[in-house]
């Protein structure tokens, strides 16, 4: 309510809430209120929205778009998803999605590349569509600096594209992982086209106290073929996601774990690899025989797979954001959710050295060191005794959050901070 009311008052919003907390509601509640008021202005005589209002939402992955489209449809919100795959499929059917988007669509879901495409620029030239857009949403905004600077330059163009919208259109930026470091956060705000102090920042703690965090030593070579530390996973009945940094590691883990399955078990059902294939997620959610997904980072962002109990990362997290995002795939409604990070002794030693040195010294080492670079924030997480404590520091988590009194939160409140931390460091 706090954030949605700001957007309805045409105030830019950046909302930071935990993984699994329902951030999508900022989008669908906003459009539902707009639709209700346009249908019955007496609900709020002081408000004014165009007839047939619409929100444009930028999503980082196709799977998030598809999941969001399905959730919106359940609420009766007319939604259209446009990305490279849906555009190609529509052309085969002889359908033009950009024309379909002009009228009657309340929620337009776009990939960053489609936002800056000629098709969308032409859509904005269509006056009826231009007039009815009431907000621009951006999901997983932490990726603006992570992916935008690395391999998806379209992320860095969102602020420029916002300038093409009607003046006064508010922006809704959502994430669970906005670092406290002003250099990082200010770059994200810049890409969004907002200035610090000129928007409403709703920051709640991103700590998930229901998830138990473990750090374990990986004795196997990450470039090898054998991973005995993970053999226990195939004997475990938890719905499990295993994250690997490369596709090569995904397949090597798959081959190794397949070799430990009983002969009467179908390895392609029990253990799946994920490469943006939505059918795998559906199989994982609804088929009890599908137990493990091995995936790269594409599955780490925003996907609501509400059966995940155990999350495993082979190797250190690539960033502090990934340290939060990947465990966040475990859902609040499962029993004893946990996240396990397997890190080699060599990388632990690297983390200790990084934390003990200045940034300048680490920069010198990085130039002459052939090993994979490690971010200082990741090094602090690895070396920290209490993992949740360093997470609170890195993300400026409030000590306490205001208790929500809505019926849903009253019936199922978030897990409170435990009196004694249960992470592997604190249990030693």
From TrEMBL:
A Pfam family annotated for this UniProt entry: Helicase_C
Matches recorded under Gene3D superfamilies: P-loop containing nucleotide triphosphate hydrolases
Nucleotide-binding is among the record's keywords: yes
Biological-process GO terms, alphabetical: double-strand break repair via homologous recombination
Limits of the Helicase C-terminal domain: 226-371
GO terms for MF: 3'-5' DNA helicase activity; ATP binding; DNA binding; four-way junction helicase activity; hydrolase activity
Keyword Nucleus: yes
InterPro entries tied to this protein: DEAD/DEAH_box_helicase_dom, Helicase_ATP-bd, Helicase_C-like, P-loop_NTPase
Transmembrane region(s): none
Keywords assigned by UniProt, alphabetized: ATP-binding, DNA-binding, Hydrolase, Isomerase, Nucleotide-binding, Nucleus
GO cellular component: chromosome; cytoplasm; nucleus
Domain Helicase ATP-binding span(s) in chain numbering: 4-196
EC number: 5.6.2.4
Catalytic activity of the protein: Couples ATP hydrolysis with the unwinding of duplex DNA by translocating in the 3'-5' direction
Signal peptide region: none
Family per record: Belongs to the helicase family. RecQ subfamily.
Classification via PANTHER family: DNA HELICASE RECQ FAMILY MEMBER, RECQ-LIKE DNA HELICASE BLM
Official protein name in the record: DNA 3'-5' helicase
